[in-house]
Design a protein that fits this description.
The chain is α+β, with helices and mostly antiparallel strands and 378 residues long. The chain folds into three domains: 102 residues, conserved putative lor/sdh protein from methanococcus maripaludis s2 fold (Beta Barrel), CATH 2.40.420.20; 94 residues, Efflux pump adaptor protein, beta barrel domain (Elongation Factor Tu (Ef-tu), domain 3); 127 residues, Beta Barrel (OB fold (Dihydrolipoamide Acetyltransferase, E2P)), CATH 2.40.50.100. It contains five helices and 24 strands. Strands 1, 2, 4, 19, 20, 21, 22 and 23 form an eight-stranded antiparallel beta sheet that branches. A six-stranded antiparallel β-barrel has the order 5-14-17-16-15-18. It has a four-stranded antiparallel beta sheet with strand order 6-13-11-8, with no helix packed on it. The chain starts with a helix and ends in a 5-residue tail after the last helix.
Amino acid sequence: MNPQARTLILSRSVLLLFLIACGCHSAESSQASADVRANPDPPPTIVHQHDGNEAMVLKLSRISGLTIGSVLNIPLPGVLETVGQVTFDDRLVSTIISRVSGRLKDIRVSQWDTVRAGEPILSLYSPDLMTAEAEYLEAASLPRPAPAASADTLETTARLKAAAVQKLELLGLSPADIAAIKAPTPIQWMRAPISGIVVTKMALRGAQVNPGDQLFALATLQRVWITADIYEDDLARVHVGQALQVVTAAYPGEVFKGVIDRISPALDPATHTLQLRCEINNPGEKLKPQMLARVRVITRPGTALMVSQQALVFDDDNYYAFVLTGSDRVERRTVTIAGWNEHGYARVISGLKPGDRVIVRKSLQLNALWRAAHGESS
């Protein structure tokens, strides 16, 4: 065989071996691809647990960047702080209403004026009042029954006089005003029932009024209320009569003192809070209604559940957290939270317990997978 033929045969042999090798490699690659396609990671699925709650099963290790944290029980100091609003103590508020039909004749005070108890505030022209005074004078002028008069006559005379006095009292006259009546008059002076500030004025000179119409409201600010909210899990730390301190933005260097006067019997189901009514001494009447104040209640130490804000997902008007219940199993729980003064964390009111392991990063991605597993759109 000549050299050229030998070279040609050798070249064909090498080419044949190369093609065989390529064919084998392609077959192995095709088989590997088929194996991958035949055994992919299963999609997330929803399962029902023994306690009746749903859980999602998925390969958590395949989610890049996923981190896990814990729900912590943080100790609280022996001071409970909250924010409240100043209001009038309604036990120190008095209203002046018209008890007869008539017309306002003269008005001596305006809104925010300070008045003294018994001071004349306005005069009211009322024919009804004149009629009642005439009936009183007629009853008072009845002759005294003779000693030999019957018991019925004595009783009737006494009843007429008592009824006339009672009618004038119901129309707003004091015993001194009644004793001073000498002749019927349609003019009645209405007096301040307490010493205080005119906080509401609806009386206008010349206006027609009817029984039940409110004309003035008087109040004193020597003592005020502050209504403040506390969370449900702090309820055991407070009680009626507990001392507290109040600081305001208007007087940052001054501390006002008071006590818890009442605790609301009802809980707000939306915020899991209830209200404290605090009675505060107000020297100098510096605290004004609607003013905001920071309330500090000295109490025993407590605890609070805290979770990273990154672990929370807001969806369908609720907050959710994904709790790790197995190596590749998470449970979506509804969580009620409150504010927390440490940045990046939220206070847990309900839905989680100390030590729960929650997904911190990638919680939004898990929520999308949860919705998809339920056939919902994100």
